[in-house]
Each structure stands twice: as C-alpha cells, then as structure tokens.
Amino acid sequence: MTMLIIDLLFTYIATVAFGVLLNLPHRALNMAGLIGTLSFLAYKLLMMAHSGLVTANLVGAVLIGVLSMQAAKWLKMPVIIFNIPALVPFVPGGQAYQMVKNFALADNTVAFSFLFQVIEIAGAIAFGFLLAELFIRLQQKLLDWLASRRKASDRDIKRY
Predict the structure, then answer these.
(1) Which of 13, 97, 109, 149 sees the fewest Cβ atoms within 10 Å?
(2) Is the dihedral of CA 15, 19, 25, 26 positive or negative?
C-alpha cells in the first residue's frame, strides 16, 4: 500500500513536471497531474489484479481520454493540453530500451518479445483514446436526446 502511494505521488510529480517542460498554462498543470495520477491508479490496480498489460493500458488510456475531454470542457482549453502530460506514465520506454539493447546484443528472441510488448501497449493506448472519443460522443448524443425529450414534455404540459 505504501509503494502504491509513493508511485502515485511520483506519477503526479512526473506528470506536472512534463507539463512544465511543455510550457502548459499554469491553471492546467494541476488538472493534468490529477488526470495522470487517476489513470495511473486504475492501471496499477488492474496490474495488481493480474488483468494483463494490454488491458491495464487500455483502461488507463480510456480514463485519460475521458477525463481530459471533461477537463477541457470545464476549463475551456484544448484536450491535448491534458492528454499529453497524463500519457507520460504509460509510455513503454523501458520495453523500448530493452528491445534496442537486446537487438544490439544479438538476442533477437528477447528483443522481439519486447518489440511485441511495445506494439501492444502503443496499440492499447491508441485504441483507448478512440474508445474515449466514442464514449464522449455517445454521452453527448444521450444528453441531447434527453434535453429534446424534456422540451417535448414541457410543450405537452403547457398545452393542457
């Protein structure tokens, strides 16, 4: 439990620090850090539940996408301001390093194993962002439909 809290603390710091490097507006830094930390918490909990690397990255990316779009609406800023810093904990840098190292050492079987991990993680992140966009669009359509139903029922009540 203590390691999880330490991981989350360092995830927040890394996300905010990356946002500073990208020169994000100061009012977006805290929200980007929170989005990164919450999505990394979901990732860690799924990894602890042995759900698999791809599933954990997919859920983390969906959370980043959905939370970033909601934060962008709330703070009236572009979505990418929240997406990019929050994505930092999910970048498969360790696997990419191991892949290149093992290719250089001519250990191709291990290198290909890491290559497939990198491809799976990158694909899960991309598909997670796609699912988040789909979820937000469905949510908006549902809200529009409910608003139109409410207007129609208000007109019917006024008629009587």
Answers:
(1) 109
(2) positive
The reported pTM is: 0.86
CA-wise closest residue to 20 among 31, 12, 10, 29: 29
Alpha-carbon separation of residue 37 from 60, 86, 95 (angstroms):
10, 8, 21
pLDDT the model gives residue 149: 81
Instruction: Give pLDDT tens digits for 124-152.
Output: 999 999 999 999 999 999 988 888 888 77
With contact defined as beta carbons under 8 Å apart, do 64 and 39 qualify?
Answer: yes
Q: Rounded to whole angstroms, how far apart are CA atoms 134 and 12?
A: 27
**Residues 53, 122 contacting (CB under 8 angstroms):** no
